[in-house]
Amino acid sequence: MAFKTFKTKREAISLSQLGEGIAAARKVVGGVIVPRNSGLRRTESKRNLIEEISKSGGNW
Protein backbone atom coordinates (compact mmCIF):
# COMPACT_ATOMS: atom_id res chain seq x y z
CA MET A 1 0.00 0.00 0.00
CA ALA A 2 1.44 3.35 -0.98
CA PHE A 3 -0.23 5.47 1.70
CA LYS A 4 -0.74 3.80 5.06
CA THR A 5 -2.69 6.74 6.46
CA PHE A 6 -4.90 7.33 3.39
CA LYS A 7 -8.45 6.10 3.86
CA THR A 8 -10.58 5.73 0.74
CA LYS A 9 -14.31 5.18 0.59
CA ARG A 10 -14.11 3.08 -2.59
CA GLU A 11 -12.94 -0.47 -3.03
CA ALA A 12 -9.79 -1.06 -5.07
CA ILE A 13 -10.33 -2.35 -8.60
CA SER A 14 -8.09 -4.58 -10.68
CA LEU A 15 -6.42 -3.51 -13.89
CA SER A 16 -8.74 -5.76 -15.87
CA GLN A 17 -11.78 -4.05 -14.33
CA LEU A 18 -10.25 -0.67 -15.11
CA GLY A 19 -9.66 -1.74 -18.73
CA GLU A 20 -13.24 -2.94 -19.06
CA GLY A 21 -14.54 0.37 -17.72
CA ILE A 22 -12.38 2.37 -20.13
CA ALA A 23 -13.46 0.18 -23.05
CA ALA A 24 -17.11 0.66 -22.14
CA ALA A 25 -16.67 4.44 -21.93
CA ARG A 26 -14.91 4.52 -25.30
CA LYS A 27 -17.73 2.49 -26.81
CA VAL A 28 -20.30 5.01 -25.57
CA VAL A 29 -18.32 8.10 -26.59
CA GLY A 30 -16.92 6.72 -29.83
CA GLY A 31 -13.64 7.70 -31.43
CA VAL A 32 -12.28 10.92 -30.01
CA ILE A 33 -9.93 12.71 -32.37
CA VAL A 34 -7.44 14.88 -30.52
CA PRO A 35 -5.91 17.57 -32.75
CA ARG A 36 -2.13 17.54 -32.95
CA ASN A 37 0.04 20.55 -32.42
CA SER A 38 0.84 22.22 -35.74
CA GLY A 39 4.44 22.73 -34.63
CA LEU A 40 4.80 26.27 -35.92
CA ARG A 41 6.44 27.55 -32.72
CA ARG A 42 8.98 24.79 -32.08
CA THR A 43 12.53 25.60 -31.09
CA GLU A 44 15.44 24.59 -33.27
CA SER A 45 16.48 21.91 -30.78
CA LYS A 46 12.97 20.45 -30.76
CA ARG A 47 12.89 20.37 -34.57
CA ASN A 48 16.25 18.55 -34.57
CA LEU A 49 15.01 16.06 -32.00
CA ILE A 50 11.88 15.30 -34.02
CA GLU A 51 13.95 14.92 -37.18
CA GLU A 52 16.25 12.39 -35.46
CA ILE A 53 13.25 10.47 -34.13
CA SER A 54 11.80 10.33 -37.64
CA LYS A 55 15.13 9.12 -39.09
CA SER A 56 15.23 6.26 -36.60
CA GLY A 57 11.74 5.16 -37.65
CA GLY A 58 9.82 6.71 -34.78
CA ASN A 59 6.64 8.73 -35.06
CA TRP A 60 6.53 11.90 -33.04
Walk me through the topology.
Elements: H1 15-29, H2 44-55
Biggest beta sheet attributes? none
Instruction: Assess the beta-strand content as a share of residues.
Output: under 5%
Q: Any idea what the radius of gyration is?
A: 20 Å
Helix content: 40-55%
Structural class: mainly alpha
Order of helices and strands: HH
Distance between the amino and carboxyl termini: 36 Å
Helix run count: 2
Quantity of strands, as a count:
0
Low-confidence stretches: none
Shape: elongated
> Average pLDDT, to the nearest integer?
87
Describe what you observe in this structure:
- The protein is mostly helical.
- Helix content is 45%, strand content 0%.
- The protein is elongated, with a radius of gyration of 20 Å.
- The two termini are 36 Å apart.
Brief sketch in words of this structure:
This protein is an all-alpha fold and 60 residues long. It is built from two helices and no strands.
Comma- or semicolon-separated keywords:
60 residues, mainly alpha, elongated
